[in-house]
Write a structure and sequence with these properties.
6-stranded mixed beta sheet, Muramoyl-pentapeptide Carboxypeptidase, domain 2, 323 residues, alpha+beta, Phosphorylase Kinase, domain 1, 6 helices, 2 domains, 21% strand, 4-stranded antiparallel beta sheet
């Protein structure tokens, strides 16, 4: 058989080579696209996983000490509770100061401090200015528990409860009814400002265990705007007192931080006693606000408390079931 001319053999060879190159290019393009899709898929899933873990940021963007990443409210059933605008000005986490004066109604559940001066056995724990000093019972019960433990170690405290609930100054934390003011009784019978020195350092280090904070830490004067009220004790409850203590936050910093955490990325926190909580913020919607509250699968609401922040919203504290 006669051989095909050289030019025809070269022509067919070129066509075959071109076909091989085209197929190679198509395969490479497919591989590159697949690789890009895989990269994009991993980039999308990473934030979702981070959100599900319950990561919590402090005021400076760092992770809060003691956070519980096992709790994700986004996976839990919920219902809605309606709260009025007036509720925004009351609660254990209301921030009252020169920039956010007290806007709530007068407090009606305050009681005399007299009966809280003594422990269960009748031993005196501290003094009071007079019987007219009042505060909310939840605050006074916490103070009595703290002072009982203090006196067991150090004896009767040389402290005088000078002030409690007062309405004269709407920029004063005393308007909330959750705050009391202690001063120190000097040997000559005069009063001096409270100072966490000597045995009183125990109070500064342990108040959080009773749901109490020192409202105006000296080192936070630049935030609170107050530097001369060292003996003001404020009840905020758990887990808030522990979170603030462990993360070196004053009340203003803590409440501001919570604005970054809605129901979907609530702060999960385990206290030293082993109780789990979820804390989150809900902005006010006007005259009434629908607030998400977690429930069990049968529709039963978790134990929870809602506090206004005195300016623009509500803070929910939900006690989670024991693990």
């Amino acid at each position: 058989m006669a051989k095909k001319p050289l030019y025809k053999r070269l022509k067919y060879g070129n066509i075959l080579a071109v076909l091989v190159i085209v197929v190679f290019v198509i395969v490479m393009v497919s591989v590159i696209k697949s690789s890009k899709n895989d990269d994009n898929s991993s980039q999308v899933s990473a934030p979702a996983e981070s959100s599900q873990s319950g990561d919590v940021s402090g005021a400076d963007g760092s992770t809060l000490e003691g956070q519980n990443t096992d709790t994700v409210l986004g996976k839990i059933n919920y219902t809605y509770d309606k709260y009025t605008k007036a509720s925004m000005y009351d609660g254990v986490l209301t921030v009252v100061g020169a920039q956010a004066q007290f806007s709530g109604t007068s407090v009606s559940d305050c009681v005399s401090c007299y009966d809280f001066m003594f422990d269960s056995e009748g031993n005196k724990l501290f003094s009071i200015r007079d019987n007219s000093v009042t505060a909310r019972s939840v605050t006074l019960n916490a103070v009595r528990s703290m002072m009982t433990d203090f006196c067991k170690q150090f004896g009767e405290a040389g402290l005088v409860l000078m002030n409690g609930y007062e309405t004269g100054d709407s920029s004063s934390d005393l308007c909330t009814g959750y705050t009391v003011n202690f001063r120190m009784l000097a040997a000559d019978g005069t009063y001096t400002d409270f100072s966490p020195m000597g045995s009183y350092q125990w109070l500064a280090e342990n108040a959080y265990k009773y749901g109490l904070i020192f409202r105006y830490p000296q080192e936070k004067a630049g935030v609170t705007g107050v530097s001369d009220k060292t003996g003001y004790l404020r009840y905020v409850g758990q887990p808030h007192a522990q979170i603030m203590k462990n993360n070196d936050m004053c009340l203003e910093e803590y409440v501001e931080m919570l604005k970054n955490h809605s129901y979907e990325n609530a702060v999960g926190y385990t206290t030293e006693s082993g109780s789990d909580y979820a804390v989150y913020y809900c902005p006010s919607e006007g005259e009434s606000t629908n607030i998400k509250v977690p429930t069990s699968s049968d529709g039963t609401k978790y134990n929870y408390e809602i506090s206004g922040n005195n300016t623009d919203g509500f803070i929910v504290t939900a006690k989670l079931p024991d693990r």
